[in-house]
Amino acid sequence: MSLSNFIFKNQYIHKGSTEVKYFYWAPETESNHLIVTFSGFNGKEEHGEPAYYNYVRQLEDTDCHRLFILDNYDGHPCYYLGAESKLDYESSVISIISQVANGNSIPLENIILAGSSKGGTAAVYFGLKYNYGHIIAGGMQTKVGDYLYELSPYTRYVVLRLITGGYDSDARERLNNHYRELFLNFKGQSKISLHIGKGDHHYKNHLLPFTNILDDRGIDYSLDVGDYSEHSGLAKHFGPFLIKEVNSILGLPVAPLGRE
């Protein structure tokens, strides 16, 4: 069976606060770990291209519970939050994670949240807010309001407006502050592993403001800086980093990251 057919057969729609599509991959042997993977932008949402799952093939041989969740609110990304500040999508996402974790007796400390770019933002957000055990994030946005306001007309007038109900500077700041308040006040003990390219503009604009807060609060994290400059380099570099970190958590052999 092809991987695409396997995904189709194991894909579900959660009907909670809002509908959320996800794909669950059960382990072949007994496991008490769960990896939850969030998706980044595919770059074609503006033209009606549906969201798709990230890092499925990279995690194909990782034998634990695997959960891949899409970010698709009426055909558009919502950063896994929802519409007009209601956080209805977030509520459904948490219901899915809890359903899989509770159904397989997986404790919070054994839940790994992962993703890159927008998916990395979601991994950090849900991991810190709900105190999951591990966060593995690459090239994420932390000033999400700024990012959506500036990236393109689509992200400003459609995505920012969907999430906040507006697209002006006030909406921009409200979304920035939604994340900043979490970073300043979370109380959990998640183990945070971050990756970024040294020349990626996300390093200065998004990652450093976040790690500065962690430093000021005395919170531990690990940071891997890759030797590449474009944000698109995450497609090549985050997968190996993800597998290395996951194997370390699962107690499997860890190969060093290759550097060009």
Keywords:
globular; 17% strand; 260 residues; Rossmann fold; 8 helices; 8 strands; eight-stranded mixed beta sheet; alpha/beta
Helix and strand layout, with pairings?
Elements: H1 3-9, E1 11-15, E2 19-25, E3 34-38, E4 65-69, H2 88-103, E5 111-116, H3 118-130, E6 134-138, H4 144-151, H5 153-164, H6 169-185, E7 191-197, H7 201-217, E8 222-226, H8 234-250
Parallel strand pairs: 3-4, 3-5, 5-6, 6-7, 7-8
Antiparallel strand pairs: 1-2, 2-4
Compute the separation of the termini in Å: 35 Å
- How would you characterize the largest beta sheet? 8 strands, mixed
Q: What's the arrangement of strands in the largest beta sheet? A: 1-2-4-3-5-6-7-8
Q: Count every helix, treating DSSP H or I runs of 4 or more residues as helices.
A: 8
CATH class: Alpha Beta
**Poorly predicted parts:** none
Description:
This protein is α/β, with parallel strands linked by helices and 260 residues long. The chain has one domain (3-250): Rossmann fold, CATH 3.40.50. The protein has eight helices and eight strands; from the N terminus they run αββββαβαβαααβαβα. Strands 1-2-4-3-5-6-7-8 form an eight-stranded mixed sheet, sandwiched between helices. Helix 4 (144-151) packs antiparallel against helix 6. The longest helix is centred in the C-terminal third of the chain and has 17 residues, at 169-185. The radius of gyration is 17 Å and the shape is globular. It starts with a helix and ends in a 10-residue tail after the last helix.
